[in-house]
Amino acid sequence: xxxxxxxxxxxxxxxxxxxxxxxxxxxxxxxxxxxxxxxxxxxxxxxxxxxxxxxxxxxxxxxxxxxxxxxxxxxxxxxxxxxxxxxxxxxxxxxxxxxxxxxxxxxxxxxxxxxxxxxxxxxxxxxxxxxxxxxxxxxxxxxxxxxxxxxxxxxxxxxxxxxxxxxxxxxxxxxxxxxxxxxxxxxxxxxxxxxxxxxxxxxxxxxxxxxxxxxxxxxxxxxxxxxxxxxxxxxxxxxxxxxxxxxxxxxxxxxxxxxxxxxxxxxxxxxxxxxxxxxxxxxxxxxxxxxxxxxxxxxxxxxxxxxxxxxxxxxxxxxxxxxxxxxxxxxxxxxxxxxxxxxxxxxxxxxxxxxxxxxxxxxxxxxxxxxxxxxxxxxxxxxxxxxxxxxxxxxxxxxxxxxxxxx
Length: 407
Prior knowledge:
Strand 9 and strand 10 (about 220) form a beta hairpin. Helix 1 crosses helix 2 (about 85-90), helix 3 packs across helix 11 (about 360-375) and helix 4 packs across helix 9 (about 330-340). With about 400 residues, the protein is α+β, with helices and mostly antiparallel strands. The chain has helices at about 45-60, 85-90, 110-120, 170-180, 185-205, 235-240, 270-275, 300-310, 330-340, 350-355, 360-375, and strands at about 5-10, 25-30, 35, 70-75, 100, 125-135, 140-145, 150-155, 215, 220, 260-270, 280-290, 320-325, 385-390, 395-405. The protein is globular and about 60 Å long. The chain has eleven helices and 15 strands. The relative contact order is 0.22. The longest helix has 20 residues, at about 185-205. Strands 1, 2, 3, 4, 5, 6, 11, 12, 13, 14 and 15 form an eleven-stranded mixed sheet that branches. It has a two-stranded antiparallel ribbon with strand order 7-8. Strands 9-10 form a two-stranded antiparallel ribbon.
């Protein structure tokens, strides 16, 4: 670990012996439907989104609810009060199971999984539920209290001190588009492909097994509502610049805000085998880094690049890539910076089509990777190598390197 860097190197190498009690592995992953904010899930608060996912996860993995060592949950715009603990109790976990809520804005869900993995690597054969949740629909109004006691409401928190610049996300996406030469045409093309892939995947039932249906106002919501089958290139071209006059970032090549929850079971390889788990994602390493806040969208690329260097893995050797598509400009820029052809990423669509649930999105990436790895892995042989990447407000990025394995 070096200054300004948060990393995990589990030391796993299939060619040499490893301490199975310290090797983190993800053995189950589920998520809620991802729905537009103020839409189908607008009446569910963050614990209401997360608790059913946690309950289903415990049942799916065959975990005794009293055997969970901790619940680690990412959340960005909630009302506080430790949503992890609240949702754990609402899910029926034993009162002795604690909870901790972490905030690295958009990266919170992936960082929660990274934190759980680091705790496993420290020893003791623990078992964690880790992930993220965001109910943008029910996020509380926020205000600073002025000297006279009056409330000054604001739409978003400041992410960095003023002298560093604190651009809105869309403005930062324009900065990345200009700085990395990502044209409007490429952004529109990428966004349209994301929708088409997500629509095709949904029709093929690729999301069904990972989604936990939610009851919202007496209606069961069991599918994502973002992917648009009718979206065409001609419509994409008509969207005006959304954030900077004359810019290239539009509503069409940007994600939409969404309500969502996702979580995974993280434990040691030794404990997973004792539990009878048959497969999972070995967590080979995680890395988080900071970048210039003016180009905050590029954070994931720096984290992923260092992570791959640490593990001597070439970008061409990555089989599955899930990147949080907050904006098409940053997605294309980050992937190409790392050396990954954007065509190879998000094979079943991403946040441009599905939506961005802030604190949940990083965990959704891992859930999607496990589902895809299971679908393509043969009964024998080395499983696919996977990479999850997400950039965060304030100029940060987190990446996780994973290997699917039969246990």
